[in-house]
UniProtKB/TrEMBL annotation:
Any single Pfam family the record assigns to this protein: Peptidase_M17
One GO-annotated biological process of the protein: proteolysis
Residues in Cytosol aminopeptidase domain copies: 302-309
Family in the record: Belongs to the peptidase M17 family.
Protein name as catalogued: Leucyl aminopeptidase family protein
CDD domains noted in UniProt: Peptidase_M17
Domain of life: Bacteria
Gene3D superfamilies from the UniProt entry: Leucine Aminopeptidase, subunit E, domain 1 (3.40.220.10), Zn peptidases (3.40.630.10)
GO CC terms of this entry: cytoplasm
């Protein structure tokens, strides 16, 4: 897929302009081109291709509302005839166009007996740096999508471990695993409690990369490889897409790939508590009390609020290194989807400066994110009569906030911490965004980190 975008200046001219620029562009064209567009009833929207007298393609035009939008040209690679094209567009829009061009070629066809054999066109631009950046973004996005799209039978904790190892094999670093009863021996009781009912042993994946003298950034990703709900079992409709409940781990692996590929000068750590929330005779029960790694006792009000349980031990471990920044990603609550819908990820942060930086970065690369409040009075909704706290609130309101407040108890008060609550899944098809797994906030966070630490 990467060979579909290259540095160079050869190929059929491909002009990408905005609708507001179309009339000016048209006025500069020769009479034959203007007549051609008139005769094919082209209205200045979408794709138009221009043949010569021999029927050969001489140029192509693509008109969009906003050429700076990173998905405006997401279907272009599939609309153009095969061949080589050279981009003519405002240089400031090149990053967006190149990303959209390449991500438009994404397909998840691992399980298809008949692959799409269409030969896709190749786009060139005169900037190797822009090409490299687009390829890095697309590879990270594709990794997130592939991991989320993979059925749970092939994406259990051991498979997530292989994905982490693949990054280390490609970019260096180290990865270690704490598996099964080792989690109890090394004091990760909530990760073990959630995952012990599955035949796929729970584990904590711990990836490290980079110079230890560089600023320390730790990523934590929820890795619930399938969520039945546990003994508080989900209904069929709620369980149907729960292969995506490891979407948080996919996000941090995609973000890690970006960091490693660009050699960002940070000391990176990635922690993934990987489990299957299954049902069996030894499954975690409602009413059980688990003493977490941090020593906080938690009463299990609902076994389907398992993501925060595995995350809390990982967050407590993340604090051992006194990192400059902790960022976690999780498909944590339906409440966030109710609040913001499925395409706008919400996040919480203990740092106004970090939150503003990530929001600004996302606004520049079409990766929008929305800060939500850590409204501390809701902390009372997590009170328990038999333990220090419960794992979910006693009322159904403000569920994304109470989940974030639960996690905040496992982060030191002086730590800059960001918590993303993401969908990790497209429920409708849009330009460059097929149905299925999706990366939300990854490019926003990476651009923030790059601006802060490069």
């Amino acid at each position: 897929m990467n060979n579909l975008l290259i540095a160079g200046s050869q190929g059929t001219p491909l002009s990408v302009i905005e609708k507001s620029e179309y009339n000016d562009w048209l006025a500069k064209q020769d009479q034959a081109s203007q007549n051609w567009l008139k005769n094919i009833n082209y209205t200045g929207d979408g794709l138009a291709i221009f043949p010569n007298e021999a029927g050969e393609l001489t140029q192509a035009l693509f008109v969009v509302s906003d050429a700076s939008h990173y998905f405006s040209c997401g279907d272009l690679i599939n609309q153009l005839p095969s061949g080589n094209y050279h981009l003519n567009a405002d240089e400031k829009n090149h990053p967006a166009i190149c990303f959209a061009w390449l991500i438009g070629a994404y397909q998840f066809d691992r399980y298809l007996s008949k692959k799409n054999e269409k030969t896709l066109p190749i786009l060139s631009i005169n900037n190797q740096q822009t090409v490299d950046a687009a390829i890095n973004y697309v590879q990270a996005t594709s990794l997130v999508r592939d991991l989320v799209n993979t059925p749970a039978a092939d994406m259990m904790p051991e498979d997530l471990a292989h994905a982490a190892q693949d990054l280390v094999d490609e970019f260096g670093g180290n990865v270690k695993h704490t598996i099964g009863d080792e989690l109890l021996e090394q004091n990760y009781p909530t990760i073990h409690a959630v995952g012990r009912a599955s035949v796929h042993a729970p584990r904590l994946i711990d990836l490290t990369w980079g110079d230890t003298n560089h600023p320390k950034v730790t990523l934590v990703g929820k890795g619930v490889c399938f969520d039945s709900g546990g003994l508080d079992v989900k209904p069929a409709a709620g369980m149907r897409n729960m292969k995506k409940d490891m979407g948080g781990s996919a996000h941090v692996l995609g973000l890690a790939r970006l960091i490693m590929a660009t050699k960002l000068p940070i000391n990176l750590r990635v922690l993934i508590p990987a489990v299957e929330n299954a049902v069996s005779g030894n499954a975690l029960r409602p009413g059980d009390v688990v003493v977490t790694r941090k020593g906080i006792s938690v009463e299990i009000d609902n076994t389907d609020a398992e993501g925060r349980l595995v995350l809390c031990d990982a967050l407590a471990e993340a604090e051992n290194d006194n990192p400059d920044l902790i960022i976690d990603f999780a498909t944590l609550t339906g409440a966030m989807r109710v609040a913001l819908g499925v395409e706008l990820p919400g996040f919480f942060s203990t740092s106004d400066e970090v939150a503003a930086g990530i929001t600004l970065a996302g606004s520049k690369n079409t990766d929008p994110v929305w800060r939500m409040p850590l409204y501390t009075p809701y902390r009372d909704l997590l009170k328990s009569t038999v333990a220090d706290m419960t794992n979910c609130a006693t009322v159904p309101f403000g569920g994304a906030i109470t989940a974030a407040l639960y996690l905040q108890d496992f982060v030191n008060k002086d730590t800059d911490w960001v918590h993303f609550d993401v969908m990790a899944f497209n429920i409708r098809q849009q330009s460059g965004r097929p149905l299925g797994g999706e990366a939300f906030g990854v490019r926003a966070v990476f651009d923030y980190l790059e601006q802060r630490f490069k």
